[in-house]
Fold this sequence. Notes:
8 helices; 16 strands
Amino acid sequence: xxxxxxxxxxxxxxxxxxxxxxxxxxxxxxxxxxxxxxxxxxxxxxxxxxxxxxxxxxxxxxxxxxxxxxxxxxxxxxxxxxxxxxxxxxxxxxxxxxxxxxxxxxxxxxxxxxxxxxxxxxxxxxxxxxxxxxxxxxxxxxxxxxxxxxxxxxxxxxxxxxxxxxxxxxxxxxxxxxxxxxxxxxxxxxxxxxxxxxxxxxxxxxxxxxxxxxxxxxxxxxxxxxxxxxxxxxxxxxxxxxxxxxxxxxxxxxxxxxxxxxxxxxxxxxxxxxxxxxxxxxxxxxxxxxxxxxxxxxxxxxxxxxxxxxxxxxxxxxxxxxxxxxxxxxxxxxxxxxx
Length: 339
């Protein structure tokens, strides 16, 4: 009995006296107070916790889920249809595929760019868009058409599909479920790949620049990036009283409003402070190269070059659309702010 008591006392003493070996940064990710341990009276072998690296991560309270980057990003899985020809090198052919299949087709980022057409899982059904587009490939290319009337079939035991394109089932094309590569951040403006160089380009970049990340996740000089951008905007538009207003970087931009008649809307000059609650003219920080591409994969980064301050209404209108020539030209023409 004495031996058992000594062991129990020694274990309790070690637990209370020894400090955590984790760095202070790791401690900041913990909840402030751990719940009572239901195994406090259990043998030490049962009480033992897994090593730090094997424990589920604890996230800072109040941080949005999209800002957590303690885990590696998951690849964006999409369905690729096999194109004919070499559209990456053949601009005319590339434009034909884009015209026929729309936002599914894109050029990837370097170092070795490719041009492919990828589809969301919801589009990969027996008669879905991925299948109907696949049937049109030779016609877009300029070859003899595939036999029609067949539906796409699942490859049993996998997530891949296949499509019969001739009189024999052996005459088929394969549609594979693959990691869709990152789309290039160069925007096509009249056939010219154009980089976005927005008005906040002279500011120091945030602590991390990552595709798909929002502007409130990382910091510039200890201040959240979004707040830093808005403050730079305010400082540039101080009135006689010394109080700064937030101005839209796309003030005067015209676009079709959603609603009856598709009326033309004009972006206002002065925007509402975000702290005053939601309003259609509330200031928001917009990704010119959208945070998600047209296939729902990560795309535009949180670089200052990719940021403009606009109204909530215009931001909502633009967010699910590919950047237009008008938007890109406007953004790149805005003079840079002084940090």
